[in-house]
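Hi there,

I know you've been waiting on this one. I reran it after we fixed the sequence typo, so this is the corrected version. Both the input and the resulting structure follow.
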Amino acid sequence: MSQDISSTRQELRKSLRQKRRALSQQQQSSAAQNVAQQLVKLPLYAHSQNIAAYIASDGELGLQPSIERILEAGKRCYLPRVMDTTTMEFRSFARNTRLVDNRFGIPEPAGEVTPIAPQDLDLVLLPLVGFCRTGGRLGMGGGFYDRCFAFKAEQEGSGPALIGIAHSLQELSELPVESWDIPLSGILTDQGYIPVK
């Protein structure tokens, strides 16, 4: 990665994380409800049975109302579990699933539940630090999602749809991307769904 792109991405991360952490609890709650209402209207959602979500941290747009709707619809929900410094997998989640904080302080499914292969997921709702309308995404910088779904770059059109979840204030007009960045299929914000151009 060139030093210029790396430092630009770090500066963007810092600025955008500050913006989303500055949102009030009421703004966060309202955004989470709006996303849940919009999610269930998406054709991608209607055709999906195996859906990956996440537990919000660091000002991320929360998915608890969306997770409730996924479970109420009888669909299967999965949450990420960080396995080591480079890999993560997705574990089944139900209302009675015990969660434990990982080394980043993010709750994840505990125990020895068999993971689902990333290729077997239909839809992945992933947290964003920043995004642009061309599908570029800025994550926390660990590369976990990029590595987990790298097969999508090699097998175009394969695997799950990747829908980024973010507050509308996290949108950028453009975003410096790297060769390993896996593009999004679309973005769902508190203001609506943005199909990738």
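Quick highlight: The chain is about 30% helix and 25% strand.

Best,
R. S.
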